Amino acid sequence: MNKNVILLPLGLAMVAAASAKDQPVSGYVKKDGTYVAPHVQTSPNATKADNYSSKGNVNPYTGKEGTVDPYKVPILRDARPLK
């Protein structure tokens, strides 16, 4: 019983802190005619490790676990060699 009394407020505080950075985005139509549904996004910052899609994080709205490695260096496929 005591653990629940301590953990519940802590969990609620964590959810409130995470949602404090969220911004609603209205639906819109892209130039190619594709409709983008309204959604919620986090405020921009300088790190990729705190994104919902990053490994180790869980999207509080969908419950989906992140799968993207935020530290992986992207491979440039169209890069041309320097002369």
Structure description:
The radius of gyration is 19 Å and the shape is extended. Helix content is 23%, strand content 14%. It folds into 2 domains: 2-41, no CATH class; 45-83, no CATH class. By secondary structure, it is α+β, with helices and mostly antiparallel strands. The strands form 2 sheets. The chain has a two-stranded antiparallel ribbon with strand order 1-4. It has a two-stranded antiparallel sheet with strand order 2-3. It is built from 1 helix and 4 strands; from the N terminus they run αββββ.
> Number of DSSP strands?
4
Mean pLDDT: 79
Q: State the end-to-end distance.
A: 70 Å
Uncertain residue segments: none
How many structural domains does the protein architecture include? 2
Total helical segments: 1
- Helical residue percent band: 10-25%
The helix/strand series, from N terminus to C terminus, equals HEEEE
> What is the rounded Rg?
19 Å
Strand order of the largest sheet: 1-4
Instruction: Characterize the main sheet.
Output: 2 strands, antiparallel
Q: Write down the overall geometry.
A: extended
Provide the structure class. alpha+beta
Task: Give a brief outline of the structure.
The protein has 83 residues and is of the alpha+beta class.
Note the topology.
Blueprint: H1 2-20, E1 22-25, E2 28-29, E3 35-36, E4 39-42
Antiparallel strand pairs: 1-4, 2-3
What key phrases describe this protein's structure?
83 residues, alpha+beta, 2 domains, two-stranded antiparallel ribbon, 1 helix, 4 strands, 23% helix, extended
